[in-house]
Amino acid sequence: MLFLIMSYCEAATTLDELKACITVSETAKATAFANYDTSNTNFWLMFGAILVFFMQCGFAMLEVGMVNIKNTKNILIKNVFDASIGAICWWAFGWGFSNSTPTHGNNWSVIGDDNFFLNGISSTEDPAGNGSKAAWLFQWAFAATAATIVSGAVAERVTFGCYIVYSVVLTSFIYPVVVHWGWNTYGWASAWRESELLFDCGVTDFAGSGVVHLCGAVAALVGAKVVGPRIGRFDEGIKLPQQSVVFQTLGTLILWMGWYGFNGASTLAIGTSTGDLSGAAAHTMVTTTLSAASCCLTTVAITALMSKDKVIDIGAANNGILAGLVSITAGCSSVECYAAILIGIIGAFWYVAGCAFLEKLKIDDVVGAVPVHGFCGIWGVLAPGLFASELQYSAAYYSARAAKCAGIFEGGDGSMLAANVVFIIAVILWVGITSTLLFLGCKMTIGVRVFLEVEENGMDDSKHGGKVFSATPVPTQEV
What we know:
The chain is an all-alpha fold and 479 residues long.
């Protein structure tokens, strides 16, 4: 484009022609840059959406590996439905509640009220600031993740009907409200607001330690409590069977890979004509790596020291990786590399404490979703309030308030930490109350737990046409 403009201007023979050429070329250049920015942003968001969506494969393998083999099909269909139900609900209601510009007033908004069914959303960009279809795709992948967190915690005993209900409500309403609070430019807690920010900083939750992971984990905690533990889960001397640490490890490593899209692509662009975001994206991926690694090693060390036989446990390593990833998700763009390692190390202690908390209360969380996504989600939101540096905050957010909103160990005055604490409390209350009403409503109507015989025999036999592995060939169903 610019080469053609230059060639055209070289053909000018008079001063008037040259002036006219320059005017035309400046307009053409502005158009070219605008098109470049749009294409660049859309590609980056779509690339990120693919990586984040691939995390569904990771969750599926992780959960299959951690449940009894007799419930394999059941957990797989739930993961497939998380993505499918999530897509329809996010298209119909979720995007409108979360990302639209509220028509009822923009000051400290709590929920969006426009753009339902993607009405008014462009394939490229929206001049009103309501996003593009590429942004919708990226955010749908996040919404599916929040729903999947719940399915693992209540696996092997929740009814399919209850699962459908909570998946629909969580993706359509509960989670979108949290997104609006934390990420919408008009949300009451958002750091992206132009004025009247919470404690003059807003919540620093770059990729969703609180918005996504804590939200899903609180719903998972409520669900696990209402549904109750699996048969024999807290009987002394009984250890419930786990299908395969191979699947669990495969799922964990897939999730680690997908997290580079989850955190890295949350820059929402890789570079524009007005600024280069590739450095910020690269930084988030480095801090993501360091936190996952340090948390993995620390978790294995802690659990080995706590075990009678000093076992080096692959299960602890896997959940340690995930705990480190969740712990860094909020601050991945705003903390330095040394802090990412510290965040991962401290995250390991939060994870172990979360496991002990659930054991003490006898709450059965099959995959450890609450310690990983809940306890480490809380820590993840707190961490940038302690460790965010002025330099990295300036690169990822706004330089004008970087000195004030840095972490308290990096010279900040505590304003960002205060905003983050308020946001944590708000998410726990909102999701806790709505999820309690949801699961208790299901318990009093359609039921939340399968019959004893179904649980003992496994849901694959009773609900999904038989065991996933059979000694005799299963006849192919004709279509």
